[in-house]
Design brief:
- It contains three helices and five strands; from the N terminus they run H-E-E-E-H-H-E-E.
- It is α+β, with helices and mostly antiparallel strands and 132 residues long.
- A five-stranded mixed sheet has the order 1-2-4-5-3, covered by helices on one side.
- Strand 1 and strand 2 form a beta hairpin.
Length: 132
């Protein structure tokens, strides 16, 4: 005499194998496919300028100059013993402002700024036009 539950058990095991196979297939497609920019992040923009903080662009570029956040007010505060603590956004704004001032004087051209600390920045010009 054979038990009647044997066929249903076989079907359930077979269905479970199908489910596990489908999940494994979906995971592999999700993890290993569809993503051309694996490991890349979106660039931060401030005042329309690309800012690379502790990173650098993937595109080819040429260094066109250096800039610091220091201005006359920072130097006067340092001489008077005042602490010039600014947050990162203010430091980036100062870098952009000083870079724009140099650009207006015709001293340099730049497309983006690379910085490690927000106090100093490397001005760069991309070698190829931007690909959107």
């Amino acid at each position: 005499m054979t038990p009647t539950t044997t066929p249903s058990l076989t079907i359930k095991v077979y269905s479970m194998k199908q489910i596990i196979t489908c999940i494994a297939l979906l995971l592999s497609v999700t993890l290993f496919g569809q993503n051309d920019n694996k490991g890349l992040a979106k660039v931060y923009k401030r005042q329309g300028i690309e800012i690379y903080i502790l990173s650098e662009p993937v595109r080819e570029y040429t260094v066109t100059g250096k800039v610091t956040k220091d201005d006359l007010g920072s130097w006067l505060n340092a001489l008077n013993g005042k602490d010039d603590n600014k947050d990162l956004y203010q430091m980036i704004d100062a870098l952009i402002s000083n870079a724009n001032r140099k650009q207006k004087k015709g001293k340099l051209e730049y497309d983006a700024i690379i910085t490690e600390d927000g106090r100093t920045g490397t001005l760069i010009k991309f070698n190829d036009p931007k690909k959107e």
